[in-house]
Amino acid sequence: MYDPKTICLLDDAPDARVVHVVDNAASIAAWLGPAEKYVRENGFGGRTGEVALVPGESGVDSAVIVVSSEHRHDPLAFAALATTLPPGPWRLSFDGYDASRVALLAHDAVLGFCMEAYAYRVGTREAAPVRLVLPDGTDDAVTMARAIWLGRDLINMPANHLGPAELASLARDALAPFGAETSILTGAAVTAAYPCLAAVGAGSDRSAHVVMSRWQGSGATADAPLISLVGKGVCFDTGGYDIKPSAGMLRMKKDMGGAALMLAVAMVAMARDLPVRLELRLGCVENSISGHAMRPGDVLSTRAGLNVEIGNTDAEGRLVLCDLLTEACEASPDLLLDAATLTGAARVALGPDLPALFGTDDLVCEMLLEAGRVVGDDLWRLPLWYGYDAWLDRKIADIGNVAEKPMAGAITAALFLRRFVKPQINWAHIDTYAWNDASRPGRPAGGETLALRAISQFLLRFIK
User: Which GO cellular component does the record give, naming just one (predicted)?
Assistant: First the structure.
């Protein structure tokens, strides 16, 4: 896994050139000086996120980036620094800002720079040509950048490099430095404890693995809030016997994006040493085709004792999650949060950038949405509309894994999961795309940890 501290950041560099962060036209003129006319004639318009290179006797002498006074906690405003600045070390100057704002701006600048500097490749990656000297007090930005990079790396990793065993092992390795107690179950142990999850993985030669990790913050007592995280880790999804077309299979290495997201959330919570008890469960499987694979019409048993009729083998993510949610509820968590690349219906409704949020508590959902707005990492709530719940009923089993009607697919998938969550549990479900179809500032094409910053911001408030 790549670390931004070794790729694009520096603790110090005496020869680093300066990037002046400015917020208005007067500040721009002051820092650009005689070069203002030159840079404006070359297209510089002074918009937020825009970078101007200031010429000197030996080339580019310094730079200016504009972040308007209306800036609200958006690291993407600083993303252009990683690709616009000439090679070499650079440091930030916030001379034009009130001291009360500098800490937030420095955090966003480091995070936005790292988000843009990220790139995935198989094999060794060299240091980035542009390096940023870390301002004081930006350790939390580095923490978030590390989690984003890890999540992106896992989602981008080719499926032949990342199967269920590899995903489980990498998750354990990522949490070990924080003192988490992590166990990995496979084989008969998975079949016994998570029969529905095991049935999804039965079609692959690469056996299903379940990650179970527990951690407690240094300031957490025995009755501290228990936060339970669950992630779908389908390392590749053929669709099973309801096989996907070739075009639909091209990106299916990203079908473990929910597991990557929940792992990243756990890492941030642990690095921040939140005063909570934390449980993380990841269902790591491959949905493949063989004589052992589940078939349409099969009826599977679950940990909860419910029987599920398989209407479509490509609706496997909810089968992976249901046993994990059942187990999570057994510990009566104060908050149960799951994430999955669950439905194409959510993408039809909201597009690729907005994860769909479902939840049983209006206040918690509003807190999640507000956290997303604060940090510029938005979600959008869809309803758990119980009028559609009967669509999942079956005559020969307790529930079907797909609805009988071809509508409201994201809602009925969430309602399926809701059947496995105890009514008294405060539960939220995130249906994410986990991918950038094209590159934009701070969001290179490929795997993405959508909602990571929103969830992490939300947890800071939730524990209070």
Answer: cytoplasm
Distance separating alpha carbons of residues 301 and 294, to the nearest angstrom? 12
Q: Which fold has domain 143-462?
A: Aminopeptidase (3.40.630)
Catalytic residue status for 422 = no
pLDDT digits (tens, 9 = 90+) for 340-353: 999 999 999 999 99
Residue among 303, 318, 418, 443 flagged as catalytic = 318
The residue type of 420 is F
The second-level CATH assignment, the architecture, of 4-137 is: 3-Layer(aba) Sandwich (3.40)
Question: What per-residue string of b and e applies to 95-114 under the rule 16 or more CB within 10 Å gives b?
Answer: eebeeeebeebbbbbbbbbb
Q: Specify the 3-state DSSP secondary structure of 403.
A: coil
pTM of the model: 0.97
The catalytic residue among 101, 244, 272, 394 is 244
Q: How far apart are the first and last CA of the chain?
A: 33
CA dihedral angle for residue 375, residue 108, residue 450, residue 329, rounded to 10 degrees = -70
Q: Which two tokens stand for residue 62?
A: 């310094």
Angstrom distance (rounded) from CA 92 to CA 18: 6
Active site residue 318: yes
pLDDT(24) > 80? no
CATH 3.40.630.10 in the chain: give the residue spans.
143-462
